């Protein structure tokens, strides 16, 4: 394991890999700092720029972007009370009160350092859990893989929306989109009314449409943004070490919470930060400060939401199962470069996962430096006029879609999915399960058919295998428990009347 | 469905807001998806159901169609039966609907004429129109950002990344 870590470290002998890391961290901050953009949209927008890059450089860049964008969301939250990402909402509860007290610099400093600690500690956990998990997963058969993919999908579907039915619908839509193209086992064209569809729906244009172009329409709807008052950054380099030392157990606890919540498909950074915030408040000697400018509140939320970045990479790297829209987009980016995440990745291309580990660790000092040194700049970024951002995002999305195959077909796909994404979001249908199902659809179908073929069409093969039976039971529970909860609530409501 | 005036901006421009009952919007989306699912299932039925290795090309799509169909039927049922918790819960607002619709049309028009316009002019025009539709009225920004953006995109994609545009 240590030898492989040296392989990962060795990748940084190529200066371009380091440049990719720095560029990714910088762009991640930029994207995270702008309200409305976030890691998913950021990675989708960056994929077209990586087509001609070396796979390692592009993967390092996207990983650094993911981590930095997750932090960047806190900047606009602290400065404007408008979190750039859902995961930064809890940070805003204490960050913005500190800004109102004239302590913007202190709030930004604590959030940046906490984010760095969260990533550092959680990457150690990733290192020690992803490798054994991938080794265990090597024993999975088709039925276990089918059950695992279904579990990932069902957890994301039931977590990502207030309504599990809408989650199931979104999952179904994504799976239907995944069936377009030549059937991988028989070569029969399915739902392909033009030869352009034979290779299936191109993933990057679909991502750009669903995430970026639909967001452009939302920005147009919101209109021009208000001019923001400049905040003094006093105190940004003056937070004493003992402030952080006092919070050592909070950092450890929040990193653990963030990491393990991040591992669960569909849970993600926002749930991790909320849980961590609540736990920190419970253990705090000054719980009354929470919501009024507590340093611990900011530290708990930021440590956990950044720790969840490593957590979400664990099932992606070890099992090839993305647990969120962002990691689903990451899997798409990896596949473009011919890298198939999953248990075999650790033996066939060990340089990829181990470079990811090392780049996460190395991103910490870079992120802290970029964050602290550029605080005034990030404050201004949050103030870029919204129509200008809409124009930039739309232009990059359309040209990025074109660049995927140097033809107009992907551009039409991106445009279509831009409108579809806008309508689905207006109807409150979540996009994360759509994209996850689109990415996992082929794997799900292939393993279903393989398992049935091996068992001569006997469907009980999924129940007789203990692992797949357990995974399927959890998948079923993830749908049934919210339904039961809703049913009990309704019954209570009727009784109360 | 109604159209109301709402003061959307800091500027004194008054914009229309389209207010739709959430229930009707959702039902409209569900019915469109139901029709699409029926067509999808119909096409799936025409695919071979068996292959030499067992389950054929139609098996999985039919399962997916069933999942979507059942979800939609339940959602339609829930939409008809449920009562909105509050007035705001039952409404969906589309601020600046004309601008949103025009933005979609601008994107389609620029994409369809991109080969004729060329990359630089096409992107500059797209950026200018989207910024204008987005409510930007400062000509200093409207006249500088679009050409700069177009030139940057040309430099990155064509000169650095080697993407070929006809």
TrEMBL record, chain A:
Key words of the record: Membrane, Transmembrane, Transmembrane helix
Annotated TM spans: 12-31, 105-130, 136-156, 163-182, 202-220, 256-280, 352-375, 387-403, 468-487
Domain DUF112: 19-436
The keyword Transferase appears for this protein: no
Protein's recorded name: DUF112 domain-containing protein
Provenance organism: Vreelandella boliviensis LC1
UniProtKB/TrEMBL annotation, chain B:
Keywords: Membrane, Transmembrane, Transmembrane helix
Record keyword Transmembrane helix present: yes
Superkingdom to which the source organism belongs: Bacteria
Keyword field contains Membrane: yes
Membrane-spanning residues: 24-41, 62-81, 101-129, 141-165
Protein name: DUF1468 domain-containing protein
Domain DUF1468: 31-165
Taxonomic classification: Bacteria, Pseudomonadati, Pseudomonadota, Gammaproteobacteria, Oceanospirillales
Pfam short name (any one): TctB
InterPro entries, A to Z: DUF1468 (IPR009936)
Organism (species): Vreelandella boliviensis LC1
């Amino acid at each position: 394991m240590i030898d492989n870590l040296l392989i990962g470290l060795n990748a940084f002998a190529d200066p371009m890999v380091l440049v990719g890391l720095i560029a990714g961290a910088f762009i991640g901050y930029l994207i995270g700092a702008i309200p409305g953009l976030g890691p998913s949209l950021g990675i989708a927008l960056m994929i077209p720029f990586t087509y001609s890059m070396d796979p390692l450089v592009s993967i390092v860049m996207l990983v650094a972007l993911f981590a930095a964008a997750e932090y960047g969301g806190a900047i606009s939250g602290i400065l404007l009370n408008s979190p750039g990402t859902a995961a930064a909402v809890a940070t805003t509860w204490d960050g913005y009160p500190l800004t109102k007290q004239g302590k913007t610099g202190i709030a930004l400093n604590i959030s940046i350092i906490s984010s760095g600690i969260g990533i550092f500690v959680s990457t150690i956990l990733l290192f020690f859990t992803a490798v054994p998990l991938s080794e265990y997963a090597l024993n999975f058969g088709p039925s276990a893989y089918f059950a695992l993919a279904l579990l990932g999908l069902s957890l994301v579907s039931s977590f990502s929306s207030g309504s599990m039915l809408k989650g199931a619908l979104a999952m179904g839509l994504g799976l239907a989109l995944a069936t377009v193209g030549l059937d991988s086992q028989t070569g029969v064209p399915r739902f392909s009314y033009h030869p352009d569809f034979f290779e299936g729906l191109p993933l990057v244009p679909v991502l750009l449409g669903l995430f970026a172009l639909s967001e452009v329409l939302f920005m147009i709807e919101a209109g021009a943004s208000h001019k923001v008052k400049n905040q003094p950054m006093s105190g940004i380099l003056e937070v004493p070490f003992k402030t952080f030392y006092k919070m050592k157990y909070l950092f450890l606890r929040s990193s653990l919470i963030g990491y393990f919540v991040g591992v669960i498909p569909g849970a993600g950074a926002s749930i991790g930060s909320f849980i961590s915030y609540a736990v920190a408040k419970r253990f705090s000697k000054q719980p009354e400060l929470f919501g009024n400018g507590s340093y611990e509140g900011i530290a708990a939320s930021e440590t956990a939401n950044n720790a969840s970045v490593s957590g979400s990479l664990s099932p992606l790297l070890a099992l090839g199962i993305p647990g969120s829209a962002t990691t689903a987009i990451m899997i798409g980016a990896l596949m473009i470069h011919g890298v198939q995440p999953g248990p075999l990745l650790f033996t066939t291309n060990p340089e990829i996962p181990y470079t990811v580990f090392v780049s996460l660790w190395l991103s910490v000092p870079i992120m802290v430096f970029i964050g602290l040194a550029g605080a005034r700049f990030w404050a201004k970024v949050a103030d870029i006029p919204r129509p200008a951002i809409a124009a930039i995002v739309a232009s990059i999305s359309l040209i990025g879609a074109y660049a995927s195959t140097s033809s107009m077909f992907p551009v039409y796909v991106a445009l279509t999915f831009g409108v579809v994404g806008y309508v689905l979001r207006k109807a409150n249908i979540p996009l994360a399960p759509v994209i996850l199902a689109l990415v996992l659809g082929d794997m799900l179908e292939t393993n279903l058919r393989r398992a049935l073929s091996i068992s001569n069409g006997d469907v009980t093969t999924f129940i007789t295998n203990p692992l797949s039976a357990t995974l399927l039971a959890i998948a079923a529970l993830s749908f049934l428990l919210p339904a039961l909860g809703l049913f009990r609530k309704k019954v209570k409501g009727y009784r109360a009347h | 469905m109604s159209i109301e005036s709402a003061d959307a901006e800091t500027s004194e421009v008054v914009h229309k807001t389209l207010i739709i009952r959430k229930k009707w919007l959702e039902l409209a989306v569900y019915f469109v998806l139901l029709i699409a699912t029926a067509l999808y299932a119909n096409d799936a039925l025409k695919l071979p159901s068996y292959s030499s290795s067992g389950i054929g090309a139609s098996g999985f799509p039919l399962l997916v169609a069933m999942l979507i169909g059942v979800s939609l039927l339940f959602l339609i049922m829930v939409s008809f039966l449920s009562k909105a918790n509050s007035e705001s819960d039952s409404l969906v607002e589309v601020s600046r609907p004309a601008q949103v619709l025009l933005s979609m049309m601008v994107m389609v028009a620029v994409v369809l004429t991109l080969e004729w316009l060329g990359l630089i002019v096409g992107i500059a025009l797209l950026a200018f129109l989207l910024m204008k539709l987005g409510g930007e009225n400062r000509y200093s920004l409207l006249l500088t950002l679009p050409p700069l953006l177009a030139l940057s995109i040309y430099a990155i994609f064509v000169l650095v990344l080697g993407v070929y545009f006809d």
